[in-house]
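2024-03-11 09:14:02 INFO queue: dequeued item Molecular chaperone IbpA, len=156
2024-03-11 09:14:02 INFO validating residues
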Amino acid sequence: MNFDLTPLFRTSVGFDRMAQLLDQANRIDQTPSYPPYNIESIDDNNYLITLALAGFSDEDLTITSEQNTLTVKGKKDSEVQGKFIHRGIANRSFERRFQLADHVKVRAANMNNGLLHIELEREIPEAMKPKNIAIGTQQKTLDQKPEIVKENKDVA
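2024-03-11 09:14:37 INFO prediction written
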């Protein structure tokens, strides 16, 4: 099932990223399944992505964060050592991309027991955080009208 969202985007400004995300969601069946991963919400502003990377070392991996995309690449030598009767552990290169929301930054990445853990944190700028507005205590009655101050301008 395809949706034509052209009328929506003709009347909106600044939602280019949403169009890109919807387009990617439409191609969900083309998403590679290797390597398997988890995305965990630690709390409201912290997340953890864990990728299962058996056989990969730190030197085989590249993690890049550019604009709102986190890319994890793994490059393995295709040289096969030994004679396999069964080969169930993948020994192939991969590239996995994650779309990050605005203001989500990569805090750290570490490898432990074949699992790559990438820590993410949402850093909301002060200007975008909610602010409490104090309510004034000045009382007005319905009969009072605001004073209009007229400026006296002397014409020379």
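2024-03-11 09:14:37 INFO annotate: The mean pLDDT is 79.
2024-03-11 09:14:38 INFO item closed
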